[in-house]
Amino acid sequence: MKSILLFAAFTLTLMTHVRAENIDIATGEYPPWTSETLPYDGILNRLVSAVFRESGYTVQYHYMPWNRALEATKQGKYAVTSFWSHTPEREKDFIASSPLSNLTFSFFYRNNQPAPQWTKLADLKDYRIGATRGYSYTPEFWELNAENKLRVSVVNSDIENFNRLLAGKIDLFPMSSVAGNYLLSKHFEPEQKNLLGVTATTLDGGNEVLLFSRSHPQGAKFAAEFD
């Protein structure tokens, strides 16, 4: 009986080992949801890893600028990218997972100026707004910018935008208040963080999802198994 149990345990271990398959996921820095420097790669990526583990997969995250992660996954270099707003225009190239979270964006501003008062985005037309390349924000945000009803300038990182805000080169920067305050605490001095305020009115970024590449041979399979 002992021999049989040992053989069964060995067989189960072998089957688990054989089944285990690695999934490469393109992602970027948006702590505390996703970050190379955080345990388990951040809150959301920890959830993603746990879900895939239930189906016998291991996950490896590859960190890069967000727009590069999206493009590389679109081309099929990665099966999955974590994590993005679900927008209709992305459905041509990606399969979206079920919603994982819902992000809202507040506007950071220099608190030596009056806090911006707004009920709709167009109310912010006189402000210089910073944005980070590759971020979705909302469709309305980019539509108003294209119509010259918002003044948006784009750079490569959130840290760069906070530096521009502190230097007075922009007036507002939209970011999740949790992620923004985390970033300020990690990369800026307390006296710099104290120079900034954050609006109570928020911008709803919609549902955040994983995007599975339609160009990758296993993209559809991974999407179905994840959901």
Description:
- It is built from 8 helices and 10 strands.
- With 227 residues, it is α/β, with parallel strands linked by helices.
- The chain is globular and about 55 Å long.
- Strands 1, 2, 3, 4, 5, 8, 9 and 10 form an 8-stranded mixed sheet that branches. Strands 6-7 form a two-stranded parallel ribbon.
- The N terminus is likely disordered.
Element order: H for helix, E for strand: HEHEHEEEEHEHEHHEEH
Cα-based radius of gyration, to the nearest Å: 21 Å
Number of discrete helical segments:
8
User: Could you tell me the mean pLDDT?
Assistant: 89
- The protein's oligomeric status is single chain
Could you say which structural class the secondary elements and strand pairing correspond to? alpha/beta
Q: Which stretches of 5+ consecutive residues score pLDDT under 50? A: 1-18
| N/C terminus separation | 40 Å
Helix-strand blueprint:
Layout: H1 2-19, E1 21-27, H2 43-54, E2 57-63, H3 66-74, E3 80-85, E4 94-96, E5 101-110, E6 128-132, H4 139-146, E7 151-155, H5 158-166, E8 173-175, H6 177-187, H7 190-193, E9 196-198, E10 203-213, H8 219-226
Parallel strand pairs: 1-2, 1-3, 6-7
Antiparallel strand pairs: 3-10, 4-10, 5-8, 5-9, 5-10
